[in-house]
Design brief:
Layout lengths: L2 E5 L2 E4 L4 E8 L7 E7 L6 E6 L6 E3 L7 E6 L4 E6 L8 E8 L11 E2 L3 E6 L1
Parallel strand pairs: 2-11
Antiparallel strand pairs: 1-3, 3-8, 4-5, 4-9, 5-6, 7-8, 9-10, 9-11
């Protein structure tokens, strides 16, 4: 199995930046696709970004394209979400997830972190 822990959330003003980190542990964790999802209060959890095991393929939610970048360092078992030009609508709990197949759908991910809060003020 894979254990997943997110970090790096916080409070930032609109237009600012944050970098989220996801630490994945397990013998085969470097072969897993990784995804970022977010959930705002009172709303469903939605897809944000994903990256395949090698880092060669990435997917993004349309509203974050050009602002967010997902990357990974397999030697350190870390996945990052660099978030630039943040907007109030980006406010949510951000979750990191892992599975063997690259996907935009949360039901395809078996391993989840507990989330990290990102708050963007006006």
């Amino acid at each position: 199995q894979v254990q997943v822990v997110e970090s790096g959330g916080g409070l930032v003003q609109a237009g600012g930046s944050l970098r989220l980190s996801c630490a994945a542990s397990g013998r085969t964790s470097s072969r897993y696709a990784m995804g970022w999802f977010r959930q705002a209060p009172g709303k469903d959890r939605v897809f944000v970004a994903a990256i395949n095991w090698s880092g060669a393929i990435t997917y993004y939610l349309d509203s974050v394209k050009g602002r967010f970048t997902i990357s990974r360092d397999n030697a350190k078992n870390l996945v990052y979400l660099q978030m630039n030009n943040l907007k109030p609508e980006d406010t949510a709990v951000y979750y990191c997830a892992a599975d063997l197949a690259l996907s935009k759908e949360e039901y395809n991910y078996n391993y989840w972190g507990r989330g990290t809060q990102v708050t963007v003020s006006s």
